[in-house]
Specification:
Elements (H helix, E strand, L loop, with lengths): L5 H6 L1 E13 L2 E12 L2 H21 L7 E3 L3 E4 L15 E11 L2 H8 L3 H4 L14 E3 L3 H26 L3 E9 L4 E4 L21 E15 L1
Length: about 220
């Protein structure tokens, strides 16, 4: 068998990729509940907002959400007539009082069930803001615990692909020329690879309780005769 000279070895290599995917369940739920009241008398509007807050807290308690899992945001007061240049475009009410209550918990199933019952709040006259980003966001924070095994498996898959290529070409796989671990992505379990989140969850798949963790490792192997 002819031994490859150094310059031959440098020019004979194959680039392969190893893909690994794992289905995981979110382990953190963040649920912002924003609400507001409007009127022309500030004390009356504020009182309505406080009543809304108590109703929402009562609702959460009834759904099994614990007080330690609830964060109260600051009260925001907007005076729509504070701008002297408002002209004819003034809002119908002078004061708008807003507040947000955020549920943050690892008990994701509890939140998933509670979020399906917000009609109970509507029946009490409380309309939650439906702005983008105001729905429940589910996150997976345990990426570091599964990273090592996934990288090992992805590298093993890459090596298997290199072995198949080498066998078909009458060569054998040599040492690693270059390796790229690749980027981990977390996507909604029912979505494709074009919808990525960052390593700890992002916006695109936050509404999904189940996630797919994906990593693609790229490895270059020298090919020996």
């Amino acid at each position: 068998m002819r031994r490859l000279r150094p310059h031959d070895l440098a020019s004979r290599y194959v680039t392969v990729k190893g893909l690994v995917e794992r289905k995981v369940k979110s382990d953190l739920a963040v649920w912002p509940l924003s609400y507001k009241e409007a009127g022309d008398d500030l004390s009356t509007v504020y009182a309505k907002t406080e009543a809304d807050k108590q109703a929402i807290l009562q609702f959460l308690a009834q759904q099994g959400i614990e007080s330690s899992e609830i964060e109260l945001g600051v009260v925001r007061v907007v005076d729509t007539q504070a701008n002297e240049y408002g002209g004819s475009n003034r809002a119908p009410h002078r004061y708008i009082v807003e507040q947000q209550i955020t549920v943050r918990t690892s008990r994701v199933d509890q939140v998933a069930l509670a979020a399906q019952k917000t009609m109970l709040l509507l029946q009490r006259g409380i309309v939650l803001n439906s702005n983008p980003g105001q729905s429940v966001a589910y996150k997976f924070t345990g990426l570091n615990s599964i990273k090592p095994d996934m990288i090992t498996e992805a590298t093993r898959n890459a090596r298997a692909a290199a072995d198949r290529f080498a066998s078909d070409s009458g060569s054998r796989v040599g040492s690693i020329r270059q390796a790229n671990q690749g980027t981990f992505s977390i996507v909604a379990a029912n979505q494709g690879s074009d919808t990525n989140e960052n390593e700890y969850g992002g916006n695109s798949g936050d509404s999904s309780l189940m996630k797919t963790v994906r990593v693609v490792t790229s490895v270059q192997y020298y090919l020996d005769k």
